[in-house]
């Protein structure tokens, strides 16, 4: 599975600019022509990233987070909410998993609702977040574009590169600043202690404040977990 020439970029809808935008600042997301395979292509030279301007030490950033994605995928691989892995090409830094047409971002910003598509989606979302916590990790990447329904309406999530151990939720800001967008810098103020980021704080604020879902679903999750 090496030829990506005819694969299509995946974009999310960003309501702040009212248009489609790139879904992340690390890997290039690609979907095969048949629409049933997703590829996380960790390519530091891809136009999907480079057209937004060069970034310092971008290859090193890609290497660091690709290795985190692989490590965390191995931990969560047997969970029903993890993506169904088809192949991992370590040499080319590509991860392939089964795709089911769209992320929840597409549903949220359409004329459909999540309740119409899957009435128990909020219960499943809570189960995923609490399940990751029970396994000893925080996952700040909780945006709707990081989730999708499979053909049986099982909610699944990806983008595990942001996960970090609850026992040691600290990381040097220098290691991650290249993936922080200009509109996201303010979120780090409370979590910073000198040059160190406390990801536990980022995770809780993601639930409580800045990751938006219909019906304030993550606020409900936060209240159930931390009331």
How would you describe the overall organization of this protein?
The chain has 227 residues and is of the alpha+beta class. Helix content is 32%, strand content 21%. It contains 8 helices and 14 strands. Strand 13 and strand 14 form a beta hairpin. The N and C termini lie far apart (47 Å).
Number of domains: 1
Return Rg in Å. Answer: 17 Å
Uncertain runs with pLDDT below 50, 5 residues or more?
Answer: none
Overall, the morphology is globular
What's the total helix number?
8
Number of strands: 14
Q: Whole-number average pLDDT?
A: 93
Strand content: 15-25%
Largest sheet descriptor: 5 strands, antiparallel
The gist of it:
This protein is an alpha+beta fold.
What are its keywords?
alpha+beta, 32% helix
Tell me the layout of helices and strands.
Layout: E1 8-9, E2 11-14, E3 19-22, E4 28-31, E5 37-41, H1 47-50, H2 58-76, E6 85-89, E7 94-98, H3 104-108, H4 114-117, H5 121-134, E8 137-138, E9 147-149, E10 155-157, E11 164-165, E12 170-172, H6 173-176, E13 192-193, E14 196-198, H7 199-210, H8 217-226
């Amino acid at each position: 599975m090496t030829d990506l020439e005819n694969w299509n970029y995946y974009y999310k809808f960003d309501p702040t600019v009212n248009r489609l935008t790139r879904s992340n600042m690390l890997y290039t997301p690609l979907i095969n022509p048949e629409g049933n395979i997703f590829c996380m292509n960790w390519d530091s030279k891809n136009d999907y990233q480079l057209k937004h301007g060069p970034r310092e030490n971008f290859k090193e950033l890609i290497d660091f987070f690709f290795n985190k994605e692989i490590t965390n995928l191995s931990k969560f691989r047997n969970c029903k909410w993890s993506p169904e892995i088809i192949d991992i090409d370590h040499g080319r830094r590509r991860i392939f998993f089964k795709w089911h047409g769209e992320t929840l971002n597409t549903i949220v910003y359409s004329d459909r609702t999540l309740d119409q598509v899957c009435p128990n989606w909020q219960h499943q979302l809570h189960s995923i977040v609490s399940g990751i916590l029970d396994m000893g990790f925080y996952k700040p990447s909780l945006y709707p574009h990081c989730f999708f329904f499979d053909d049986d309406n099982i909610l699944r999530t990806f983008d595990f590169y942001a996960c970090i151990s609850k026992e040691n939720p600290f990381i040097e800001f220098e290691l991650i600043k290249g993936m922080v967008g200009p509109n996201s810098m303010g979120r780090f103020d409370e979590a910073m202690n000198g040059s160190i980021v406390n990801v536990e704080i980022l995770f809780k604020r993601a639930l409580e404040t800045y990751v938006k879902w219909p019906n304030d679903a993550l606020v409900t999750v936060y209240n159930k977990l931390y009331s």
